[in-house]
Amino acid sequence: MVNAGDMNGSGNLMDFLDEPFPDVGTYEDFHTIDWLREKSRDTDRHRKITSKSKESIWEFIKSLLDAWSGWVVMLLIGLLAGTLAGVIDLAVDWMTDLKEGVCLPAFWYSHEQCCWTSNETTFEDRDKCPQWQKWSELLVSQSEGASAYILNYFLYIMWALCFAFLAVSLVRVFAPYACGSGIPEIKTILSGFIIRGYLGKWTLLIKTVTLVLVVSSGLSLGKEGPLVHVACCCGNFFSSLFSKYSKNEGKRREVLSAAAAAGVSVAFGAPIGGVLFSLEEVSYYFPLKTLWRSFFAALVAAFTLRSINPFGNSRLVLFYVEYHTPWYMAELFPFILLGVFGGLWGTLFIRCNIAWCRRRKTTRLGKYPVLEVIVITAITAIVAYPNPYTRRSTSELISELFNDCGALESSQLCDYINDPNMTRPVDDIPDRPAGPGVYTAMWQLALALVFKIVITIFTFGMKIPSGLFIPSMAVGAMAGRMVGIGVEQLAYHHHDWIIFRNWCRPGADCVTPGLYAMVGAAACLGGVTRMTVSLVVIMFELTGGLEYIVPLMAAAVTSKWVADAFGKEGIYEAHIHLNGYPFLDVKDEFTHRTLATDVMRPRRGEAPLSVLTQDSMTVEDVETLIKETDYNGFPVVVSKDSERLIGFAQRRELILAIKNARQRQDGVVSNSIVYFTEDPPELPPNSPHPLKLRRILNLSPFTVTDHTPMETVVDIFRKLGLRQCLVTRSGRLLGIITKKDVLRHMAQMANQDPESIMFN
User: Fold this and answer.
1) How does the entry describe its membrane topology (predicted)?
2) DSSP class per residue in 14-39
3) 583, 576 in Cβ contact below 8 A?
4) CA–CA separation, 249 and 244 (whole Å)
5) How far is residue 418's CA from residue 422's CA, in Å, rounded to a whole number?
């Protein structure tokens, strides 16, 4: 269905306009692009470049530069996305620690960096060094006692409120589009919707700065989702520098798909996971060429981040783990149980969060975004500080939960009772009975889990940058670690039970609680986002735990099955529907037996379709039709009586063509006849100069018959990315079906209010 007439028309329109207006061939804000038309325009452009390249050496060099421009854009995106991610990571580390204290020799050092340089740090108290001072030590020279605790508590809350207030104010004043995770909107943009400014320079700048502030404030959110938005802003900026991408919305979306891959690559240090995430989760149109370019962009981004080394461990991965024991078949049962928990948590979270966001949109609550952020931050800081597992940053918490208990661990989670006669290698410590520290940690983790589950529901969707990956993983990791410790103690105290007898002998290291935390994290993230393949790859790239793919796969698939039993939508699709974006999800199935004639407009009793005739309307008639309607285009017919279809004219190009003709062509007045045929119609002798607009006419619009099943029509809209489709019978125009008509019909068939899902 290559739209050749339309594209030749676009080329001729350029000739007709001499120096074209900047808006020719572009789309208005909050409109959908025509994928077929963009594809055809690119084919035309490529054909011209190829034919010109044979004329001279200079044209040949230009054609080579054009061919390489895609790779150059990917290189630039990777470099900028990697640099921004590295800077964000370093800034977050410093500002998170700033809430608790300051490094005296160099205030820009985080706690860890400050104590690296100290010679007075002991192994037991590796977090304590004289160079790092808590606020109570600095202000009242006390490190212990009630007054020191209260002062530190108060300053922790003040810093958190300060960061959050600054973030929400910057978003509100300079870049309202910088709020949220950005992934629902990016999915919508990649499906062909235009949201001007969403990927602009201001959004990039403000989102980068406010992301540091909100993560440092200790709110229950992550920076991973917003980093995809940041990378797509980089992609949009660099594609605007090359006319190949800036003048073609379809080509621009190929760049944005690759940029999304680079975003996940730097968010998790997972380049392959990033490519799969872009393919599985966000992209609408993903040709093989885009796969290679995404791979290259993700590679460059990961390499740049590795060069900056923000984690200081010379590793790209965020939560590197090293487990010394394999997993056993009997452990698949608790892994699957964690998958069930992940699916239930995902369902609970999506339903509660969407209900809260809908309430925010429809009540007075939405009018006070700053107050909402301040209140949620205050509650988070007040409740989080007393519990060591919620006080620290979520990434540090997940890292500790994933860790295996070696001989060098000082964490409460590793407070086991040691056998004094044990003479084993350091790496192979057998299962031991839990000490008082482990029981304390279990209580604190249980309280932290409940708090995280509740507060994340209210945090995601506020008017600040907020990602969902890390909070979801934290919920799963806490649940998983508790299950892991439970299984470990069960195996230790009841090793003679039939399920443990075959693989867990007394004195052996059988169960790794950290692995359960990893599986739980994957299950909860899968339950919320409904990712499967990309999730498993991200998890093993994130942790380096390659041999644990099967437990991760089992948990991811189980969580998806359980969550899908309660509703097919992931959190991003739910937010797309909440905002009413015109998004046709490829995963949705349409199984109803309706026909095109049931959906097309005009319906019975409605005014007839607004059409143009091929040679009997004046300029004034066309302008009146444009003024009185708000349609994006008009079918062109032979005459109002015959209604034989000739083609389709876009509203925007009609306006531009008439405006330019009035300015530059003599004799074109309001009563000039507009004709879309090759030859002008026969006119009376003294008639004004006619206006030929055949060049902007699409001579091959997509048409279906009135008896085409809607199942086929929906499939056509999805796979070809159409804006509209004309309905005919024996060449006679009957009506039109737009993308919004399809969405309305699908909502109606699903017993939803069709108007509530339309973008306003």
Assistant:
1) Multi-pass membrane protein
2) HHHTSS--TTTT---TT-B--HHHHH
3) yes
4) 10
5) 8
Tokens for 72? 């150059």
CA atoms within 13 A on the CB side of 378: 7
Inter-CA distances, 722 with 39, 225, 289, 528, 650, Å: 12, 29, 22, 30, 14
Which of 57, 563, 533, 548 has the alpha carbon at shortest distance from 328? Answer: 548
Q: Which amino acid makes up residue 473? A: M
Contact 129, 349 (CB under 8 A): no
pLDDT digits (tens, 9 = 90+) for 249-289: 999 999 999 999 999 999 988 899 999 999 988 888 888 88
Q: Which domains does the chain have, with CATH numbers?
A: 334-417+428-578 (1.10.3080.10), 596-750 (3.10.580.20)
**Amino acid identity of 279?**
L
Structure confidence by residue, pLDDT tens digits, 4-63: 333 333 333 333 433 444 455 677 788 888 888 888 889 988 999 988 888 889 888 988
- 40: tokens are 């055809």
Q: DSSP letters of 432-454?
A: --B-HHHHHHHHHHHHHHHHHHH
β-strand partners of 637: 613, 645
Q: What angle do CA 337, 342, 345 make, to 5 degrees?
A: 125
Q: Are 259 and 235 in contact (CB under 8 A)?
A: yes
Residue 258 · residue 285 · CB < 8 Å: no
The single-letter code of the amino acid at 359 is R
DSSP character string of 546-615: GGGHHHHHHHHHHHHHHHHHH-S--HHHHHHHHHT-----TT-------BHHHH-BS-TTSPPPP-EESS
Q: pTM here?
A: 0.89
- Cβ neighbours of residue 125 under 8 Å, at least 6 residues apart? none
Where does 665-753 have alpha helices with state H? 710-720, 739-749
The token pair that represents 42 in the structure block: 């690119």
Whether 537 contacts 549, CB under 8 Å: no
Return the pLDDT at 236. 95
Q: Which residue type occupies 498?
A: I
Residue 66 CB coordination number (10 Å): 17
